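Students often ask why we bother encoding 3D structure as a string. The short answer is that it lets us treat folding as translation between two languages. Here is a chain of 297 residues written in the first language.
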Amino acid sequence: MRLQNTLRKEVLIKGKGLHTGNDIKMRLRPAPRDTGVIFIRTDKGNIKIKASVTSVVDTTFATTLASEGVKVGTVEHLLAAFAGLNIDNVYVELDGPEVPIMDGSAMPFVNKLVEAGIAKQARAVSFLRILEPVVVIEGQSQIAVTPYEGTRITYRLFYTHPAFGEQKLGLDITTMKFVRELASARTFGFLRDVEMLRAKGLAKGGSLENAIVLGEKEVINGNALRFKDEFVRHKILDAVGDISLMGLPIYGHIIANKSGHTLHVKLLKKILSSRDSWELVSEPVIAPSASGLAAQV
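And here it is in the second language, the structure alphabet:
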């Protein structure tokens, strides 16, 4: 049985917003058991926004949540860090409209969280165990979840680009595998799309320091990739963050083909509406602890 977790102490993180370009100050604070992840916009009268699939208002190039007309965007990497480290309850205070992009991965958040320490709480975690497959198909993109003895994500993506074409990877999602194989994978984009994105008011804070940028034929950052298949690893990282919006860990195998934020959210909504496809259980297996990671990340 896994107990719920929160932070041992506060964490302060400063960085730039990927889409707004704003300088953002973010404070992570311990929260009581059964709180979940709550975003608080300190610049908007301390409006609280729960990290839940019901709070999602946009999935264009990032996942955006809202409450009472107040939004917080680009939440997926931070949520992935929480989920990967089994942190269940935390307040996230922000003085701006999105989570800082940092280096485009979840690793800066992981390092800060491990440094702060993780505290157990006196309440068991419930899991959502998948009993029957749930499938979402949109054109050439598909995502499904099937019964599985653990939590696993298999992802396939395909681009007709000289730097990479098809990449496919399947991983059981444990704390150690998340930290070692997913957390440092960076977001990526195409140079050809930058002008279009900025015309829409997006990617104002994007740079070669916080994203892998692909030119017509190659990666233009000049830095080596962190993994030969870093692109698909980042897609799995995004999925870990988005899927955590269920509010409960999912015990099943998520299989995605050319998917993204939109299909991640649609899958969660379809799972919730397919009541016969799942059950709530206490943790079926012993999850690896996040303690002792400080020397490894």
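Translate back mentally: The CA atoms of residues 52 and 254 lie 18 Å apart. Keep this in mind for the problem set.
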